[in-house]
Amino acid sequence: MIRKAMKQDLERIMEIVHASVEVMNQQGNYQWDDTYPLASHYQGDIEAGELYVVEQDGKLVGTACLSEKEHDEYPSIDWRSPAKAITVKRVAVDPLCRGLGIATRLYQHAEKVAVQRGLDYIKTDTFSKNASARHLFEVNGYHFLQEKYVEEKDDSLRYYDKLL
Known about the structure:
The structure is a single chain. The protein is of the alpha+beta class. Helices cover 30% and strands 30% of the residues. The protein has a seven-stranded mixed β-sheet. A hairpin with a 4-residue loop joins strand 6 (143-150) and strand 7. The two termini are 23 Å apart. The model has no long low-confidence stretch (mean pLDDT 96).
């Protein structure tokens, strides 16, 4: 089941985020760290009504922010459409539940939310070293647009979109 997150979900969300950061770091992917994402980011997402969670067997196992607000650098990206879009951000899945299609379900839900809001466009991004996210985007029909180097992370952000 996918539903909107509530403030009482925040502790479990952060457990998932911290476990995800550990796995990402073990894989040489330093996209997330102790400065991002923070509980305050997810709290703001909850307050804005933009954070969704996946429950499986009564346990919260994944989360994603589905927002019409873009990241600050998005206006500098060569998107395929000027249309307003849903931006998928801060996706995290419990490492013990990876490989079960939870992230795919969150991206499919983003498409449903977009259609409900009268939008036909999805934007997202990930760092180049995040092989799992890159694979997720590719198998779910997302189009790679471009890559931009991020000096402080010594990695490149890769931008993807999907026309619905």
